[in-house]
Amino acid sequence: NEKLRLGEFSRRGGLYRKALKLLGEVAAMQRKLWGKTVSSNSHYIRARIMTEMGDPRGARASFRKLLKIQEETYGASHPFVGYSLEGLTLAAMGLGDGKAALSTLRRSLQLSEEEIRLNLAIGNEQENRAFIRSKAYQVDLALSLHQIFLKDDPSAAGLAFETILKRKARALDAAVDTRSILQSKISPDPR
To answer: pTM, whole model, 2 decimals?
Structure first.
């Protein structure tokens, strides 16, 4: 949809009010055609705008709507659901609600771990390293949640520590698997 693209371009350009107006028009059009707003893209863009404008309440509301649509459309274990949960984590942090942030981050990291496992199984070493690097911000998010919002919470400390260890282990596993495959292809069969 042209208005949806214009809304995203407006958001990127910092024209938040214009972007929100365009997204409202998209939602109205969808409600007229289908009886409800079905575009997860419009909710995602709205949530990003609210986050960028420093409105964590608005962001939380939009990410909740987005999460509902994504769970209905893709199922509760889809990576898109994890991204919405990350957004809810950031909104909760913006509201100072460390416990809610911990809950959504924990679920998001579980989904991400499965996404990483599946992607590392099919990628080559270079792709796997790049994929692991693309998820590094999640370690930062877990550490920030613990250090800034839940400093004395052992559950938050455990999640941060576990996230670091899992990511290191995934990176090592990916490197070892790739080397093993290469070694088996270049070495003669010892039998």
So the answer is: 0.81
